[in-house]
Design a protein that fits this description.
Strand content: under 5%
Radius of gyration: 26 Å
Strand order of the largest sheet: 1-2-3
Order of helices and strands: HHHHHHHHEEEHHHHHHHHHEEH
Helix content: 55-70%
């Protein structure tokens, strides 16, 4: 019993000492040496328990001090409008989009807690956020450039919309969902934003065929909100990049949206899903404000990035037009309120489309966003934009 108790106490102290910061590691070793001097079994366990509690307290206090210091740095950067950190963040639409998405989901979860939503709803949104962030990390900063001209991908995603229209889960005459275990996912909210961003980067004939097929699928489903989202995204693209192919895609999306406009909408509003931008204020003004701010943040990467990133303006405007239309649809009818309401489909769709945004927005002169200067090459004392063309990071 003596050996077992002593070994258990020693292992406990060893594990806890690894949690201590480096400058407190001597405390852990001192406690282990003191433990070796104790002979009674009961005293060994009592001493180990006290040391374990002390070391955990020290470790937690050190982590909290570190987090507070980091938070103070973030707040200081945020309070200084012209700080390089803020400039750098605003110049990275992809990173800014991830932060805006995470913030919107967090605000939505706070609203659902205040509104008494089932815990499973919070778990679904949080899981979707983790999955989307994982894909964001997996694709990397070069995903946007590597997937440019992805016409076959767009067409394959359009086929998913067509299959959903004919074989998906139907409710009150609308076929918009597929079953994944206990969940029903709205396919259009996941794939349509991705299609629009991919198509905006480099419209081609195959991608145009995919957009036309998507318009027909949304008309068959029928889905008035997402048909409007498709039209809004394409119109935003046309503003930034006029061309024959986008006009062809718009020519198909206009009658599709018109068809859904006259199709009857019989789906009732679902609690914590639809009309959230209104019902949140019924619970508390702060909950309503959080939901409104979270919804508005969804288009922030497009607004900031498109104002400076001339070369990437088509993709950014298509992204912004898409998610602005999703929010407007949620305001006007019984449609899912993206990210701040319950629904993993919108969370996945937003983060997947964010992952395809440019890693860095450049202006026409090749400098980074918000007028920051190009970095000078020390060997020549000339800006790097004079030495090599800017690339997407």
């Amino acid at each position: 019993m003596n050996n077992v108790a002593r070994r258990l106490a020693s292992l406990s102290l060893l594990g806890a000492s690894r949690l201590l910061p480096r400058h407190l590691s001597l405390w852990g070793r001192a406690m282990e040496r003191e433990l070796a001097e104790i002979e009674e079994d009961g005293a060994v366990l009592i001493f180990a328990a006290g040391c374990l509690r002390a070391m955990l307290g020290l470790a937690i206090a050190a982590r909290l001090r570190s987090l507070c210091a980091a938070a103070r740095g973030v707040l200081l950067a945020a309070s200084t409008w012209r700080s390089p950190a803020m400039y750098d963040l605003y110049a990275r639409p992809r990173l800014l989009g991830l932060l805006c998405g995470a913030g919107a989901v967090t605000m939505g979860m706070a609203y659902m807690i205040a509104a008494g939503a089932p815990p499973s709803y919070l778990l679904v949104n949080f899981t979707a956020l983790l999955l989307g962030a994982t894909v964001w990390l997996t694709l990397g900063r070069t995903a946007a450039s590597r997937l440019a001209g992805a016409g076959p991908v767009i067409l394959a995603l359009a086929v998913l919309l067509v299959l959903t229209a004919f074989f998906g889960v139907a409710a009150d005459g609308a076929s918009r969902w597929v079953s994944v275990g206990p969940l029903n996912l709205q396919v259009s909210l996941i794939v349509l934003p991705v299609m629009l961003v991919l198509y905006a980067r480099q419209p081609d004939a195959i991608g145009t065929a995919g957009m036309i097929a998507a318009a027909l699928a949304l008309a068959v489903q029928p889905d008035r909100a997402m048909a409007g989202v498709l039209l809004a995204g394409l119109l935003a693209l046309l503003v930034a990049r006029p061309g024959r192919l986008p006009i062809m895609a718009i020519a198909a999306s206009v009658p599709a949206f018109g068809w859904t406009w006259f199709a009857p909408e019989t789906l009732p509003a679902s609690p914590w899903v639809d009309r959230v931008l209104y019902t949140a204020f019924d619970h508390h003004p702060l909950a309503g404000s959080a939901v409104a701010i979270g919804a508005a943040a969804l288009v922030l990467p497009a607004l900031i990035g498109a104002s400076r990133g001339a070369g990437e303006r088509p993709a950014l405007l298509a992204f912004g037009g898409c998610w602005l239309a999703v929010v407007v649809a949620a305001l006007l009818g019984n449609y899912p309120t993206p990210l701040v309401g319950y629904g993993g489909s919108a969370v996945l769709g937003y983060l997947l489309s964010v992952a395809l945004l440019p890693g860095r927005a450049f202006d026409l002169a090749g400098s980074t966003a918000f007028g920051s200067r190009p970095v000078a090459d020390r060997s020549t004392d000339r800006p790097t934009s004079e030495l090599r063309a800017p690339h997407l990071a």
